[in-house]
Amino acid sequence: MSNSTKYIFVTGGVTSSLGKGIISASLAKLLQARGYTVTIQKLDPYINIDPGTLNPYEHGECYVTNDGAETDLDLGHYERFLNVPTSQSNNVTTGRIYQSVMDKERRGEFLGKTVQVIPHITNEIKDRIQILGKSGDYEIVITEIGGTVGDIESLPYIESVRQMMWEYPDDCIVVHLTLVPFLRAAGELKTKPTQHSVKSLLELGVQPDILVCRTEHPLDNTIRKKIARFCNVNPTAVIESIDASSIYEVPIIMQQEELDKVVLQKLDLPSKGNPELKEWKEFLDKLAHPKSKITIGLVGKYIELKDSYKSIIESFVHAGAYNECEVDLKWIHSDKLNGDNIDNELSALDGVLVAPGFGSRGIKGKILAIQYVRENKIPFLGICLGMQCAVIEFARNVIGWKDAHTTEISDNCEYPVITIMEDQKDITNKGGTMRLGAYKCKLLDGSNIAQAYEEEIIKERHRHRYEFNGEYLEEFEKHGMISTGKNPETGLVEVVEIPDHPWFVGAQFHPEYKSTVERPHPLFLAFVKAALKNKQ
Ligand code: GLN
Predict the structure, then answer these.
(1) DSSP notation for 247-310
(2) 319-347, pLDDT tens digit by residue?
(3) If pLDDT is split at 50, 70 and 90, which confidence band does 17 have?
(4) C-alpha of residue 467 to centroid of ligand 1, in Å
(5) Ligand 1 contact via 357 beta carbon (within 6 Å)
(6) Can 231 be counted among the known catalytic residues?
(7) Ligand 1: which of 466, 492, 510, 512 to mutate, most ligand atoms within 8 Å of CB?
């Protein structure tokens, strides 16, 4: 192990959804604010190689990194909090671990040995944990173990943590997140679930150093002492994590609880002064005191599970706060939009975003929504499939090509205005084969998008197989939809706009992946501004 890297493992007990990702990101933020270089990694116990092939209903949004990894949505939180990009190494799944071990087995790398969970799988896990540390870029690596202690699937991960704690006792600590429920009938907070979940960890050979206790009510000293006594930790290492009104308050709450201080003590690292978190607090202040309010319609087909649009939602939180404006999202199910209800659903909106997606369900509603905002001059942002639908709508209703479509849905349409990318044509495997990750885009001077970025060449992340069909560009431009962003190398059309509209932008890339608290995304900032203007 590199002698300068420290490892913090974050495990969870009692129940899922306690917010391990947010606690990890908050701790990382505090350590970063003290001057440490920190990154966060997520180990996911499921057997998919990555979440790229998962339906959003299963696991929420698939987050894409600069290097084109399709990852867990927690990586989005890591980037939004830390303002530092993540990569493929920051997300590892059981599927990837096994695939790598099995490839090695086929290559004969195990020299005739029986391949087993211990040591082969656990060695692979430990190697993956240490990749980021060994890169030399980070003093501290926080590794979040997905799932809940006691799950069959997470056993090899916990075992790997046990081995690392034993091998490098001075460089590793475990932060265990649990729930302290309040029983209304008894009028009391209950510590037993925490005790049990720590016992489960102990059975696996892991003694947590710090307990972060999620609770709806403050933990008094008696409760803290009780938890400490039963779980072999110091009372100061029992950290209260009270419900917050915004995830962005959690770093401040953790600072008040001194989570970062206790962590540094346990790791024997200098505290390097108390972080001010000035910019962060300014952001929180703006977030809490908006001067105006707008309503943006979010048209998508996965809206029953809001996590499917996590990065978009957070981008609006950032852009809203910086515009001192509360952005109220109205969720509009693209499946349910039709000619009868469209006016009712969209007329009062200050702006409309049509979301990314795959397949035919909900396409009609998306196209209808775009026609409505185009004709009624409501500010519009289309992302990926949302941009593609804007192109289809324009072809049908402005140019007059009634049978214009994307070949994703209608292979034999007369006007394939959106078509499969050349290098996608022979691909049959679904996993990890889209056009993924960051590509350059050259913006047209004077366009809405160029004004938003105030830059000529930008880099944004992609995740798609289909694209604007360049053959038709001339005809589109003649009729008033122009390309305002192109890939400088290939000439692919990445952005379309309608200059004769207050603000109509469709982007083939996903701006939402790059919005952070300290660097709100320029396109969302500009969209919110346009919606504010529309409202006035
Ligand atoms: N389904 C479209 C494509 O593959 C759009 C993808 C997306 O919205 N991410 O090109």
Answers:
(1) GGGHHHHHHHTTHHHHHHHHTT----S----HHHHHHHHHHHS-SEEEEEEEEES-TTSGGGGH
(2) 999 999 999 999 999 999 999 999 999 99
(3) confident
(4) 8
(5) yes
(6) no
(7) 466
The 466-468 sheet, strands edge to edge: 404-406, 415-420, 466-468
Cα distances (angstroms) measured from residue 74 to each of 20, 23, 230, 285, 494: 9, 11, 31, 24, 27
The tens digit of pLDDT for each residue in 37-88 reads 999 999 999 999 999 998 899 889 999 999 999 999 999 999 999 999 999 9
Q: Which residue has the CA at smallest separation from atom 1 of ligand 1? A: 358
pTM of the model: 0.95
> Which residue has its alpha carbon closest to ligand 1 atom 3?
464
Helix (H) or strand (E) holding 156: helix 155-167
Give me the pLDDT at residue 16, please: 87
Task: Choose, from 176, 462, 501, 510, the residue flagged as catalytic.
Answer: 510
Mapped onto helix, strand or coil, the DSSP state of residue 47 is coil
Place of tokens 């519009």: 380
Q: If you take atom 6 of ligand 1, which residue's CA is the nearest one?
A: 464
